[in-house]
């Protein structure tokens, strides 16, 4: 933990998560109650002013984090689980299966992330679990390629050959020799996926394909209040800053983990 | 005389690789067209109902389905669509009844101008910044720039765009329009100021990745033996950097640009919507909201084909610019096990 980037990244990420988790209890008003003037300026009772329908911005802010956060964490986790399994399978199986998986990943990589997500969400609807699944589908090819490349690189090293010659079982080689060594790049990628996931999910809500309107959601808040950007900038800025801070925190965390592993790699001859 | 192949103009060594790669790209493109068609057509969304509205009687929907050929088997529908797509006919837009290809070509031009602008800004900027940071490695400038780049990389692209709008739509800074409402009758070159903010927003999202890639590649090249050898020979440092290490650092940057373009196309959708730029992204957004299936199919198809083409070009450039790959009879980009021991998972059953 002597890497300051890891400490700062974890701290920032944890703060935003705490804000989103505790927010619903702390909100002074209901997230859908119209309590003030449309685009009302910040006052003593409403620190961040009112939005396009007269909701209290702070209350919506406190309520609106949870959806973006759990969805991005879920999407990144699903992508990590499925992608690394497929990637390991590709890297460690016979050529035919390897080619099939790699090629499928290549084909799906031809769809830019957001286009793929837009395509599926627009066709199938916008239930939250569907969006999570869709975003994770967009992430899976990247994980497959990373896991496969790392597994192939590790599998060619001496200690794996040694384990192979000592007659260890495949399961043991996979879980004790290969998996621990590809964990770091996967973890870094997980942090990056959280960053992208938050961006993509809030971007989806911003375009109007995410969470349905009356619900409070950071991305949706930006979309709703964009027209009043000049009158009441806080209604857009506050959720934008929180999304940005969370994305920044997860990214710093990923950078830190990557940098620490690079440094440890330097020390080991 | 014994080697006639030396006399006749030889085919370049990389040509056989390229033909294989081209076939791979074509196969990928075909599978993509299948995926796009099935994803849009086979899913529960009925174009006939979209055209006639939710209250239309069942009979007229069935009639229209018959007219559109929607009651035929899905494979037949695909073949018909694929055949006409090959000849450039992408069907008619359900929304405006105009041929999809007409709408698409106009929009595509705008997006191409936008992306070209971004590449023209980002690539020189990333090269200059990357080389500068690599030469001043671990200095204060290097560390501050890297922090700033991490910040740019982390911030979602549409937030950057909104930030720019906020910054430039303030009353005292109204010299740049925040919304790109282009006049279709005028040439785009006369309306360049509408391009500034979208290009800037997209460039900022693409800059961090490329800069860091150039920086890393430059650092690796500067640490290599040939730089030491060149310095020992007394070649000026400036010449080593620009004449020897930069060309070597450029090759990975080509793949980086290809990857950047892929993410840029996705980011362009959001940026175009934010700035109301009349490109392919706003068209896709509108088509999805109108459930305009032929339009969605065409746009997604064009975008994915563009990505396949970009990857193909990047691979070709990489091979052409790397002498070792260019002259190799067999191009393999996969690393082999150093000692040639076949691991158990590569062995076929017979070897044991």
UniProtKB/TrEMBL annotation, chain A:
It comes from the Bacteria. The keyword Transmembrane helix applies. It holds the Pfam family BPD_transp_1. The chain crosses the membrane at residues 64-88, 100-121, 127-147, 178-211, 231-254. Keywords: Cell membrane, Membrane, Transmembrane, Transmembrane helix, Transport. Residues 65-254 form the ABC transmembrane type-1 domain. It is a multi-pass membrane protein. It is found in: Cell membrane. The keyword Transmembrane applies. Gene3D superfamilies: MetI-like (1.10.3720.10). Belongs to the binding-protein-dependent transport system permease family. This is ABC transporter permease.
């Amino acid at each position: 933990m002597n890497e300051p980037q890891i400490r700062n990244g974890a701290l920032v990420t944890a703060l935003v998560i705490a804000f989103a988790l505790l927010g619903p209890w702390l909100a002074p008003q209901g997230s859908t109650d119209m309590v003030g003037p449309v685009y009302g300026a910040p006052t003593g009772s409403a620190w961040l002013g009112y939005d396009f329908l007269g909701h209290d911005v702070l209350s919506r802010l406190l309520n609106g984090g949870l959806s973006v956060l759990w969805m991005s964490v879920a999407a990144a986790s699903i992508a990590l689980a499925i992608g690394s399994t497929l990637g390991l399978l590709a890297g460690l199986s016979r050529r035919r299966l390897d080619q099939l998986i790699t090629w499928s990943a290549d084909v799906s990589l031809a769809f830019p992330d957001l286009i793929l997500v837009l395509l599926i969400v627009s066709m199938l609807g916008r239930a939250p679990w569907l969006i999570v699944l869709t975003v994770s589908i967009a992430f899976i090819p990247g994980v497959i390629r990373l896991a496969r490349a790392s597994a192939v690189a590790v599998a060619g090293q001496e200690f794996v050959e040694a384990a192979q010659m000592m007659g260890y079982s495949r399961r043991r080689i996979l879980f004790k020799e290969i998996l621990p060594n590809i964990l770091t790049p996967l973890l870094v990628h997980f942090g990056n996926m959280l960053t992208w996931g938050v961006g993509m999910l809030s971007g989806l809500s911003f375009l109007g394909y995410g969470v349905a309107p009356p619900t409070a959601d950071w991305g949706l808040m930006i979309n709703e209040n964009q027209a009043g950007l000049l009158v009441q900038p806080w209604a857009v800025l506050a959720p934008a800053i929180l999304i940005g801070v969370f994305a920044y925190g997860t990214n710093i965390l990923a950078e830190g983990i990557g940098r620490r592993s690079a440094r440890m790699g330097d020390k080991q001859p | 005389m014994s080697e006639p192949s030396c006399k006749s103009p030889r085919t370049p060594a990389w040509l056989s690789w390229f033909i294989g790669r081209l076939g791979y790209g074509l196969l990928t493109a075909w599978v993509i067209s299948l995926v796009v068609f099935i994803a849009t057509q086979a899913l529960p969304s009925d174009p006939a109902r979209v055209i006639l509205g939710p209250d239309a009687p069942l009979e007229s929907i069935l009639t229209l389905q018959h007219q559109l050929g929607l009651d035929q088997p899905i494979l037949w529908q695909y073949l018909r669509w694929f055949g006409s797509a090959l000849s450039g006919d992408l069907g008619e837009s359900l929304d405006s009844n105009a041929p999809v290809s007409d709408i698409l070509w106009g929009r595509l031009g705008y997006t191409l101008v936008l992306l070209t602008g971004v590449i023209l800004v980002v690539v020189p900027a990333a090269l200059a910044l990357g080389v500068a940071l690599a030469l001043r490695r671990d200095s204060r400038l290097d560390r501050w720039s890297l922090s700033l780049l991490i910040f740019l990389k982390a911030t979602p692209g549409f937030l950057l765009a909104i930030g720019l709008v906020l910054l430039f739509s303030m009353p005292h800074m109204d010299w740049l329009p925040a919304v790109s409402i282009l006049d279709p009758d005028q040439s785009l070159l006369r309306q360049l100021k509408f391009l500034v903010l979208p290009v800037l927003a997209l460039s900022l999202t693409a800059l961090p990745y490329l800069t860091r890639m150039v920086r890393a590649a430059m650092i690796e090249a500067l640490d290599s033996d040939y730089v030491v050898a060149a310095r020992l020979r007394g070649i000026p440092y400036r010449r080593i950097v620009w004449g020897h290490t930069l060309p070597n650092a450029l090759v990975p940057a080509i793949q980086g640009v290809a990857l950047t373009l892929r993410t840029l196309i996705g980011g362009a959708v959001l940026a175009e919507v934010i700035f109301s730029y009349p490109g392919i992204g706003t068209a896709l957004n509108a088509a999805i909201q109108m459930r305009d299936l032929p339009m969605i199919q065409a746009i997604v198809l064009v975008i994915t084909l563009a990505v396949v083409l970009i990857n193909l070009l990047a691979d070709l450039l990489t091979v052409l610019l790397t002498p070792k790959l260019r002259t190799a009879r067999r191009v393999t980009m996969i690393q082999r096990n150093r000692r040639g021991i076949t691991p158990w998972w590569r062995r076929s059953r017979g070897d044991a």
